[in-house]
Amino acid sequence: MAAGGPQCTLVDNSKKRKRATRESSLSEDQKRQNHVSSEQRRRQAMRQTYDTLVEMVPDLTASQSRSEMQIYARSYNYLAWLYERNRLLREELKQKTGSDAPSHLEWNIPTQNK
Q1: Which residue stretches, if any, does this entry annotate as coiled coil (predicted)?
Q2: pTM for the whole thing?
Q3: Which of 31, 34, 109, 113 could form a disulfide with 83, with the two C-beta atoms 3.0–4.6 Å apart?
Q4: Contact (Cβ atoms closer than 8 angstroms) between residue 72 and residue 60
């Protein structure tokens, strides 16, 4: 050993492996079919999500035709109304009881950064 302390030498004993190229067992037609199927499932999930919003937002009805923009706008308006209603109810509670509502009941509408 040297006077300066023990010395370490690093030895790279790892062997580099080449990745095996894997032949695709799917034909081009099968790949396309899989892609089409995946896209159909994605669209169906989106439709179900929109249908759920329509069920929850009073200003939307399943019988009327609606665009995505109408769903977004009316959902936003309903949420803004809920936030305001929550604020008014908390004020009413404070007036009647003299104390603030529990913090888990306090909703503040998120501000938009423009």
Answers
A1: none
A2: 0.61
A3: 109
A4: no
